[in-house]
Protein: ABC transporter substrate-binding protein
Organism: Paludifilum halophilum
Amino acid sequence: MGIAFSLIGSLAACGGGSDQGAEGDGGQVTITYARGKDQTQTTKKLIEEFEKEHPQMDIRFKEMPSDTGVSHDQYVTMFSGNSDEIDVFDLDVIWSAEFAQAGYLQPLDRFIQKDGIDLDKYVNGAVKAGRYNGKQWTMPKFVDAGLLYYRKDMVDEEDVPKTWEALTEQAEELKGEQGTSFGYVFQGKQYEGLVCNFIELIGAYGGRVLDEQGKVVIDSKGTVEGLRKLREMAQSDYVPGHVTAITEIETDAIYSEGQAVFSRQWPYHYAKMQEDGSDVMGKVGVAALPQGDAGSTAALGGWMTGINKNSKHKKEAWELIKFMNGAKGQKISAVDGGLAPTYLPLYQDEDVKKASPLFENEEFIKGVKSAVPRPVSPEYPKISDIIQVEVSKTIAGEEKPENAVKRMEQKLKKVVEGG
């Protein structure tokens, strides 16, 4: 998601050639905003509109690598060295607690309270993703949530499965019809995408990894039931035999070739299925993920924005966040960039509704509202690794769900609680 390299030069020029963080003639303040690569012109427009409203401020844009892992490591290197090169930066939803614990972020609570920001108007799961140890460290920018896609030419809207049991039944029944080979496809490879599928399944049956206090509570009936359902699907004949090697990329290919009836994917999948060359153009519907005994749960994805603890211009940095992550900025991101807002009132905005069919789709909005963050913990990378290994073994048929859950409980307690 990135901006043209020419933008970096032009924005630097806007700073009048001053050093980062310096105040020039007339009290001008230059701050640096960093985010990953942006293929749209959204970032450029956000900065232009902000500078129009704040003529005393110049924003220098620093483009980070498109690989989120590389960006993460570069941020860690900068911030661990107490660098003030960057003032404002975007974070993956799973980084907030880690960066807060490490001392890289400035708490935002006093800014939020001073300006009367109503966090209840934002996607609850996204707000929670930025909260750690009783403080709000980041503000939600845009959201991703797991969704169920279905073939409209094969399944009527009123017949879209509402439960995981119904999905498995229809997947088995419909596979092979109208040139399909599979009833359902999801991300089963041992990587972060598998964690998302796991969180969704166990959440649907009442399972959780951590409670609100950060205590490990994964060993529960709901977790076992959700993992059992995930394993059942992975071991079935209605999903690809190589499902344990499938990521979002393979999911896109399988579905665009018309090989599957249903798929679990992120919001971008909808537009991709409408591209030239897709065999399912105009044939794809979207719905919230199916329910289990405890309802429907979608894994939260997306990005947040925070302030570098070492920034010399925290007040000005907050003004940029307030604009970008508020109603005006998120509307620009939605209309020009197709990014799903975390500011819920925008789903009633006519311009936003016109920007993407998803933004006026009640099932999509339901999925966004039900999205839950992955475990909010500074130890998340280790938590994810443990879950990936144990869930991967289980869906491959190498381990029983109840045994895998007990082992995850033991390993996670050592990492999270030191027990």
